[in-house]
Design a protein that fits this description.
Radius of gyration: 43 Å
Number of strands: 0
Order of helices and strands: HHHHHH
Oligomer: single chain
Distance between the termini: 116 Å
């Protein structure tokens, strides 16, 4: 026999036999514990259901608020509000296509900086624009004074 079987026999032999009354009490205690566990499980289930319902109500309220916000931003002549799920941002060209497309000069870059000869009253931006028009190399690194000197020397 293994040591555990010996100890089981010893404990069974040394345990006093319970009377009928004691066994009934033990059974009643076990039933009470089972009832308490069942009540606790019911409470937990009810709490979970209540939390789920509250989450649904909160989601409904948020949807109603979002709908109200979208109504606030609709034009006056438009009586129907656009569905919030149907609003999509304008389509953009893929990043590779945007990077590959040649950049067209803006109106500022093609317009002459100012008329006349450059002076100290000109801004650095206008001096750089004039330097670019005249084809001056390295103009972006030059200070305002250096740009004035370079432009006056170029004339």
């Amino acid at each position: 026999m293994s040591p555990s079987k010996k100890s089981d026999k010893k404990s069974a032999a040394t345990e006093p036999k319970l009377s009928k009354k004691a066994r009934v009490k033990l059974a009643e205690r076990a039933e009470k514990k089972a009832e308490k566990a069942a009540v606790a499980a019911k409470k937990a289930k009810a709490k979970a259901i209540k939390a789920k319902e509250q989450a649904k109500q909160k989601a409904k309220k948020e949807a109603a608020r979002a709908k109200d916000r979208s109504k606030e931003h609709t034009p006056k002549g438009d009586t129907k509000a656009a569905p919030t799920s149907a609003v999509t941002p304008p389509a953009r060209a893929p990043r590779a296509a945007r990077a590959a497309s040649p950049k067209t000069p803006t109106a500022r870059a093609t317009r002459p900086a100012t008329s006349g000869t450059p002076s100290a009253s000109w801004t650095l931006v206008s001096l750089r624009a004039r330097a670019k028009e005249q084809g001056l190399a390295g103009y972006s690194r030059l200070s305002k004074e250096a740009l004035l000197q370079a432009l006056s020397a170029k004339r």
